[in-house]
Amino acid sequence: MSKEQIDFESILNYIHNEVTKEVQRGQVASYIPELAKVDPEHFGIHLRPIDHSPIGIGDFSTPFSIQSICKVLSLAHALKLLDTDIWKRVGVEPTHEPFNHLSLTEKGNGIPNNPFINAGAIVVCDMLYSQLENPEKDFLDFVRNLSDDSSINYDKKVYASEKANGYRNHATASLLKSLNNLHNDVEQVLNFYYLQCSLCMSCEQLSKTFYCFMNGGKNIVGQEFLTPSQTKRINAIMLTCGFYNDVGGFAFNVGLPAKSGVGGGIVAVYPGKYCISTWSPGLNQKGNSLLGIKALEMFTTETKLSIF
Ligand code: GLN
């Protein structure tokens, strides 16, 4: 992959032109009222190749709510602190259910299928809550160090909006508690979960933050955050669980480990080659960014750079 071989800038400009012509943009998430206020016309894309300068097009520097994309960051933080112990309380299998499905914790022992469905992410939050002295500050510091960007922050309006309407997550956490897989107080763990989901980043910041997963565990300034083995496992879970019940379609159409969020963001990595982020707030029926998927499909098709 070199500048001579692939003209990334032209490809990204072409994708931007094509995608922004689309009339069908999906539905902006409305179950978190603060997210319903976001203009569905936004579209941004940002590419950070390992051996080429980064390129951003459209609204690539506008921060948005990363929502479930934070689940990769909390998993990374928990792996760094607890390593393989975390797999005693959360599995690594994909599901055929939506991200917020309740039955996942009812099957037997209360161990959620994977860390990216809400039930699994809430268990990971609980682990971090037990480990961290000041969960709110320590998690933010972890993310800021990972991305080498101290401007990243929580959006307390989005946090409050989700907390005020978090009935389903409350049910999930209560079910986990009843099945002995939540060690701390339900409210406190959920508050921490909503804070993580409220993290705000632009496409540019997402590509920087996820550089570590593309680079064997070393972040953008070469600091080692995860071992290559831990990184490999996170990428495998992104590939198999990052899009919930849409994961087969994403692998088929795009072919990269990736994670989506109901704020309309997607970040994808090609290990050893590049990180790419998109933002378009309109979602498909499975809660993933409609135009983001389209843009990434065009990108891996035009560049021939998918892992398959
Ligand atoms: N905070 C959201 C929730 O718990 C995250 C969901 C998502 O982005 N898929 O419902």
Plain-language structure description:
This protein has 308 residues and is α+β, with helices and mostly antiparallel strands. Helix content is 43%, strand content 12%. It has twelve helices and ten strands. It starts with 7 loop residues before the first helix and ends in a 5-residue tail after the last helix. Bound molecules: glutamine. Residues 67-68, 99-100, 118, 162, 169, 197, 261-262, 287 line the site of glutamine. Glutamine binds next to loops.
Structural class: alpha+beta
Kindly estimate the percentage of residues that lie in beta strands according to DSSP.
5-15%
Number of strands: 10
The biggest beta sheet is recorded as: 5 strands, antiparallel
**Helix percent band:** 40-55%
Taken from the alpha-carbon principal axes, the silhouette is globular
| H/E element order | HEEEEHHHEHHHEHHHHEEEEH
- Small-molecule binders: glutamine
Number of helices: 12
- Please give the radius of gyration in angstroms: 18 Å
First-last Cα distance: 16 Å
Q: List low-confidence stretches.
A: none
